[in-house]
Amino acid sequence: MRVSASLPIEVLKMAYDSIASHKFRSMLTVMGIVVGVVTAIVVSTILTGMRQSIISIVEEYGTNNIYVFHFSTGIGPRNRDERNRKPLTEADAMAILTQSSTVEDVALVAPSIGSWGSGFDDNLVYEGKNYRWALTDGVSANYMTIANVVVKHGRWLTESDDFQRRRVLVVGVNTVEALFNGDGEEAVGKTVRMNGASWEIIGVIEKRKAGFFGENEEDRKIFLPFRTARKEAPTRDALLHIVQAKPAQLNEAVLEVEGILRQRRDVKFGDPNNFDIKTADNFIAQFDGIIGGVGIAAIVISMLGLLVGGIGVMNIMLVSVTERTKEIGIRKAIGATRGAIVFQFLAEAMSMTLFGGLIGVVIALGISNLIIFLIPSIPAQIQPWMIAVSLFVSVGIGLVFGVLPARKAAKLDPIECLRYE
Predict the structure, then answer these.
(1) CB atoms inside a 10 Å sphere around CB 86
(2) Which residues, other chains included, contact 54 with Cβ-Cβ below 8 Å and sequence gap of 6+?
(3) What's the gap between Cα 15 and its chain centre?
(4) Burial 15-42 (b: 16+ CB within 10 A, else e)
(5) What SS3 string covers the chain?
(6) Residue 213 Rama label (left phi>0; alpha psi -120 to 50; beta)
(7) Minimal CA–CA distance to 361: which of 395, 323, 402?
(8) 197-205 and 168-171: which strand pairing?
(9) Whole-prediction pTM value?
(10) Residue 182 to residue 351: CA distance in whole angstroms
(11) Minimal CA–CA distance to 42: which of 305, 288, 289?
């Protein structure tokens, strides 16, 4: 029977028969391909899910907000020069409101007043129960609107609470679970002890839909009036401005706010800002930079696996050429062309790596779905492009590393082949 390049189906069948006759050897050969594909798909799935979580969190807090702080915010280390920066002030917020034409409102936040050093104990006590993991923020009354906070039980802080410096609290779900067995309605109206004084819980906020690994920082929050926080923790002078831009004017508002603060904080022309100003897009871009580094590391590991798999395929195909020298001579003697021989061995190599890619995809799908099941808060999805790219690269590895054995087989002299023992 004459087998030539014009009969690709027959050649592919012969390639499959060759692989099937050495199942164990073929499986060991493609283990590198399997590892590379699994690494690429699983890491891509996790990073995609984590990025979507970050986007959901940022969007839930408001995409039209600008965050201004004297220290760097977001992800990453702080600059050493930041230690001497002066905090922002209420006067800065008033200047932004009065001098800017693109700003809707500004919320004042005294962040984590119980978390930085001594001076304020934010351990909540109720009937012998303690909650020690609170993140206590003093906020202005308009924080609820600007940060899209939803009150589930009770009420939010008012301007009257703020000006009268009342000891009232709006708490997150973690406080309710720790002190009131998860009953938010029961928590409203109760008096707790914090920082050596009595405080009334007037509201419970609803749990955010978006979270990172099932958790949202706001679940640990305890909100109290801004001026009450200033009174109770006078040494906590850090102030975060959450500036709400007018609709469709976010970029213009950023420039205006930056210009106003540079002037008020005596920043000379050409000098960097002595404050931090960010939007939702900036936070996402910061996270993208981090996952980009992780992605590169995953690609390197994946490529190493594919390289090992490719070298293994090339070696096993060279061995196969030696083992089948007589078969190659017979095929050439009955009319097989060089092209047919090359196509056959390339088909075997690509079929082998495709097989490894398919196994890797199946394993990766199982691991990815298990991760999604165990951590449902990560909205991870296995994208079709991940599978398509993995299989394409797998076949490409077989093509590249199968060239040398295929050419070696095609160049064999049929007479010498028939003499081979």
Answers:
(1) 10
(2) 212, 283, 284, 287
(3) 42
(4) beebbeebeeebeebbbbbbbbbbbbbb
(5) CCCCCCCHHHHHHHHHHHHHCCHHHHHHHCHHHHHHHHHHHHHHHHHHHHHHHHHHHHHHHCCCEEEEECCCCCCCCCCHHHHHCCCCCHHHHHHHHHHCCCEEEEEEEECCCCCCCCCCCCCEEECCEEECCCEEEEECCCHHHHCCCCEEEECCCCHHHHHCCCCEEEECHHHHHHHHCCCHHHHCCCEEEECCEEEEEEEEECCCCCCECCECHHHHEEEEEHHHHHHHCCCCCCCEEEEEECCCCHHHHHHHHHHHHHHHCCCCCCCCCCCEEEEHHHHHHHHHHHHHHHHHHHHHHHHHHHHHHHHHHHHHHHHHHHHCHHHHHHHHHCCCCHHHHHHHHHHHHHHHHHHHHHHHHHHHHHHHHHHHHHCCCCCCCCCHHHHHHHHHHHHHHHHHHHHHHHHHHHHCCHHHHHHCC
(6) left
(7) 395
(8) parallel
(9) 0.75
(10) 57
(11) 305
| Per-residue pLDDT tens digits of the chain, which is 421 residues long | 344 444 456 655 665 666 666 667 667 777 888 888 888 888 888 888 778 778 877 878 888 999 999 888 766 566 667 778 899 999 999 999 999 999 999 999 998 887 665 578 888 999 889 998 888 999 999 999 999 999 999 999 999 999 999 999 999 999 999 999 877 788 999 999 998 899 999 999 998 876 655 567 788 899 999 999 999 988 888 899 999 999 989 999 999 999 999 999 998 988 888 899 998 888 888 888 877 787 888 888 888 888 888 888 888 888 877 777 777 777 777 777 777 788 888 888 888 888 888 889 999 888 888 887 877 766 667 778 888 888 898 889 888 888 888 888 777 766 666 665 5
For helices 31-61 and 280-323, give the axis angle rounded to 10 degrees: 170
Residue 80 to residues 70, 129, 266, Cα–Cα distance (Å) = 13, 40, 20
- Both structure tokens of 186: 């029961």
Locate tokens 């905090």: which residue? Answer: 87
**Which residue(s) pair with 110 in the sheet?**
138
Tell me how long the chain is: 421
Structure tokens at 242: 């959450």
